[in-house]
Amino acid sequence: MRSLCMIGMFSLLAAAASAQSPNLNNSQTPQAVEVERPVDGYFKQANIESARVTPYANVRDVDVMFSKRVWREIDLREKMNHIYASPKSRLIDVIMEAVQAGELTAYDAVSTKSDPNGDSFGTILPPGQAMAKFADSVVVPEFNDMGEEIGSHMESGEFNPDSVTKFQIKEDWIFDKQRSVFEPRIIGIAPMVKIKAAGQDLGEQPAFWIYFPEARHIFVTKAVSTRNNDATGLSYDDIFMKRLFSSYIVKESNPDDLRIKDYASGIDRLYESERVKKELMDYEHDLWSY
Fold first, then answer.
1. How far apart are CA 195 and CA 163, in angstroms?
2. Residue 238 structural domain
């Protein structure tokens, strides 16, 4: 008897459920069905999206026994730097999207009397002008109603992210006697743009500067596409803080404010870059007694 009651109860519940959920195949009118988007994979990396910047240790000026400023360039064509140019997460795309959205400030890299190097973050560059730094200008002819050419004007072409193959970094190497730490701290990052005049290539120079402490809040939420492991969980902030890049020094602070290319040429530039690197390593090595 008890079994018959249970069977009857389940039958009533099934009938009620079928009455509340109409058969979509027999529906006379289309019904919207919300379908949750499936996860692209077997897990979702949500830690990057909610990541926060790990602040620097506080440094007092009285504790800085040694300080040296250097400028170095990262060439994305080198194998170790390919991750910065990955189509999945280009560094230049991360920067430009943040600049266009107003989340990151671009500073003009044009030299002035008060800022000969153009890298002191003195003049803010509007997002439109920052984008125009990468677009080649083309001559567009103008025609009247009769189809006759009456003039021309200049228009900016489309931005090609693959055209950015180098970044310049400005950083300070400091020794903090309070913590007994000799470390580099990046101050600014600048994408490099090729300069052409009268059909001649005049080399590359910074398009604009980004203040790195501000950019860290953007970089920490942007995942990096690595070659060997998709589950590293590394962000752009991680790879800059861990120094996961290959670079060469193009300038060190000096009384004459000279760049390496101002007094060296050819292979001697590379030798001079390595000399500056070795001096920094030797300074740290000589601090300790073994």
1. 12
2. 70-135+153-290
